Amino acid sequence: MIHSINNMILSIGDDPTREGLNETPERVIKSWNHLYSGYDQDPKDIMKTFKEGTCDEMVILKDIEMFSTCEHHMLPFFGKAHIAYIPDGKVIGISKLARLLEIFSRRLQIQERIGEQVTGALMEYLQPKGAACIIEAKHLCMMARGIQKQNSVMITSSLKGVFLDKIETRNELMRLVR
Prior knowledge:
Elements: H1 2-11, H2 24-35, E1 49-52, E2 59-70, E3 76-86, E4 89-92, H3 95-105, E5 108-109, H4 111-126, E6 130-139, H5 140-143, E7 154-161, H6 162-165, H7 167-177
Parallel strand pairs: 2-5
Antiparallel strand pairs: 1-4, 2-3, 3-6, 6-7
Helix pairs in contact: 1-2, 3-4
């Protein structure tokens, strides 16, 4: 991989052996190991559930800071996510919602897919009455190239179960995450 990164540096017109760049391939590899660590993680490994028959109200973790890498341009996007579910007999530790988001966002991604993967995993492992993931993010692929709109924020939502089927439940969620 070091050779490939050196070739990339050469192809953009710089010298990979000059001071300042001579250790760049190793640094890139180290950063990619962190940025793309989601590929080495399986959501089921963190989805330890607890039986909780009395909890049937909305559980929300909001303003979760997140970042990912656009699969189209390999540039970062970053922002915050709000994840919610309504239990139906099982709950998970609240930190697991943030961990689930990290697993899916630390991959080459599109924002829409992250929300779908988060809600899909919640529905699969918890079987809740509903699950939701709303993501608000700024994309460097749009800020630094192309249209160059630095203040644009992309908002996506993935709604499953009662969040999709019942307008009152969806409206309550939207009020709570704003």
